[in-house]
């Protein structure tokens, strides 16, 4: 362990204690009902809503995945992905947030996303709810694993400790405060974590520019690397047979850059489509206290996202100028933020700043755990198996589900060479294609019906798996990020099936015509 590790560890322990205490503080209120446990009683203000949504969304890929991608491959992929995410964030808040807040309450006071879909289409057999819950369980299990990878890499890099042991320890901390405190604990800690995350990014960004000798020196160094700052070229590191980048005369070796064409750019921008189907963000829209506060939340959220994404990508790029030969693989490069923090900051401050990384993993994985628990307990257990289940029984099943997801996530995260960005991209595409088109049409198109909803959700989820595993490897135009084609496949399927089958009942149409008039 490096000198000063005691102060780093002390700062992080203080942070851990605070978030766990928050869980216990909210335990009594959260356990009063399922609406309190899963949705915080629809009581969140604009700041809490905005920062909770963004902190839970921007997982370890913000502080580790994106900087690592920029460090190893240059600006193009990381930059265009960040642009897509920023645009998607704005559009989601603009076109979905207020409508979902109102409609979720009008549609039987839905407290989960599967609840909303089921109530929106008056699905008395709970077919749609069950499919949605299974999709959430599948893709959030993968997502949780990516967050635990973040925890393991963080502690292993900081203290030189065993990756697997530290990954499990981090997972248990996340599990504890989610298990006890429910949605209010998760959202309140997200406010703290969102603040820490953006502060950490800004501090390390400014410090790394100074460490590299100023903006002019940094840009001059990076421009000398083939294609590194070119948004239409991808830097190509020269690697040995083990996949490690070669070092020549003390500098990293690069070959001629490859073209980063329109298909690749569109793939990155397509990340923004994922927001329309992202449960951990959508549920924040449902929980805001008053729909009139959505506009204020939108401004806060978009400003936070733009600053955070800019700093994250810049840190990866500048890191290559500060320590050009430190990381020889993409997986290792995801530690650039941690190492720069150690280099630039006093030990205690470093502990607080790198808590931002743990904050990112905690805020996201806790949301994933909670939403997965609600999907199984509320939508499968009470929705299908035991329809007269009490709130107490539902919360017991939810907590059992948390344990199962925790263990599954640990299994996924056990490989320390996992690349966070790649793990996240798979689950992101799954949610975006399965839920995104249906969410938009549910809010904007009255003719959408139950058969169309079921067909669209299944085609989106299955399409992502098929495209990723069988079609994408063909390359060329088929190499596009699977979210893009599968999003539009799902959209088309919903429209076609809805038009070919019976139109919604008059009751459903009346509900649709009047939901925006509701005072929520």
Account of the 3D structure:
The protein contains 21 helices and 4 strands. It has helices at 5-25, 27-30, 34-39, 46-57, 60-73, 75-106, 113-120, 127-159, 163-211, 215-223, 262-269, 279-287, 294-322, 330-333, 336-344, 347-385, 391-413, 420-444, 450-471, 483-500, 506-514; strands at 233-234, 247-248, 251-252, 258-259. A hairpin with a 2-residue loop joins β2 and β3 (251-252). It is globular. The mean pLDDT is 85.
Radius of gyration from the alpha-carbon trace, in angstroms: 23 Å
The global form is globular
H/I helix tally: 21
**Distance separating the two termini:** 53 Å
Structural category = mainly alpha
Task: Summarize the helix and strand pattern as letters.
Answer: HHHHHHHHHHEEEEHHHHHHHHHHH
Q: Give me the side-by-side strand order of the main sheet.
A: 1-4
Oligomeric state of the chains in view: single chain
Tell me what portion of residues adopts beta-strand conformation.
under 5%
Please tell me the overall pLDDT.
85
> In total, how many beta strands?
4
């Amino acid at each position: 362990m490096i000198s000063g590790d005691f102060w780093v560890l002390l700062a992080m322990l203080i942070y851990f204690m605070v978030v766990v205490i928050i869980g216990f503080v909210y335990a009594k209120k959260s356990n009063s009902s399922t609406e309190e446990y899963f949705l915080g009683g629809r009581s969140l203000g604009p700041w809490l809503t905005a920062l909770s949504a963004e902190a839970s969304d921007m997982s370890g890929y913000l502080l580790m995945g994106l900087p690592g991608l920029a460090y190893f491959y240059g600006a193009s992929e990381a930059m265009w992905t960040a642009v897509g995410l920023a645009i998607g964030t704005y559009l989601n808040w603009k076109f979905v947030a207020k409508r979902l807040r109102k409609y979720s309450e009008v549609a039987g006071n839905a407290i989960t996303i599967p609840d909303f879909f089921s109530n929106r289409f008056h699905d008395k057999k709970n077919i749609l709810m069950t499919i949605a819950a299974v999709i959430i369980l599948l893709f959030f299990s993968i997502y949780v694993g990516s967050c635990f990878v973040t925890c393991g890499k963080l502690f292993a890099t900081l203290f030189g400790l065993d990756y697997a042991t530290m990954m499990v320890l981090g997972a248990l901390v996340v599990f504890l405060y989610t298990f006890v405190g429910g949605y209010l604990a998760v959202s309140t800690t997200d406010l703290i974590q969102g603040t820490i995350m953006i502060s950490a990014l800004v501090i390390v960004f400014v410090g790394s520019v100074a460490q590299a000798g100023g903006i002019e020196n940094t840009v001059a160094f990076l421009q000398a690397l083939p294609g590194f700052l070119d948004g239409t070229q991808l830097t190509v590191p020269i690697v040995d047979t083990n996949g490690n980048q070669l070092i020549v005369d003390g500098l990293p070796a690069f070959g001629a850059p490859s073209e980063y064409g329109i298909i690749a750019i569109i793939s990155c921008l397509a990340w923004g489509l994922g927001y329309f189907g992202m449960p951990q963000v959508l549920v924040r829209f449902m929980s805001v206290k008053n729909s009139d506060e959505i506009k204020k939340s939108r401004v806060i959220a978009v400003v936070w996202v733009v600053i955070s994404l800019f700093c994250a990508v810049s840190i990866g790029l500048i890191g290559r100028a500060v320590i050009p030969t430190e990381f020889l693989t993409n997986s290792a490069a995801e530690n650039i933020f941690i190492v720069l923090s150690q280099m630039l900051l006093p030990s205690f401050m470093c502990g607080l700043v790198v808590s931002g990384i743990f904050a990112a993993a905690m805020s996201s994985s806790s949301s994933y755990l909670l939403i997965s628990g609600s999907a199984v307990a509320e939508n499968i257990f009470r929705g299908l198996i035991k329809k007269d289940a009490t709130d107490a029984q539902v919360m017991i099943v939810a907590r059992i589900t948390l344990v199962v997801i925790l263990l599954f996530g640990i299994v996924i995260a056990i490989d320390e060479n996992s690349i966070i960005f790649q793990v996240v991209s798979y689950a992101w595409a799954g949610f975006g294609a399965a839920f995104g088109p249906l969410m938009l049409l549910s809010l904007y198109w009255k003719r959408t019906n139950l058969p169309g909803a079921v067909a669209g959700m299944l085609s989106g989820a299955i399409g992502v798996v098929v495209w990723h595993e069988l079609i994408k490897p063909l390359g060329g135009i088929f190499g596009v990020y699977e979210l893009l084609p599968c999003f539009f496949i799902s959209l088309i399927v919903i429209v076609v099936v809805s038009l070919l089958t019976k139109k919604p009942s008059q009751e459903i149409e009346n509900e649709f015509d009047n939901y925006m008039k509701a005072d929520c």
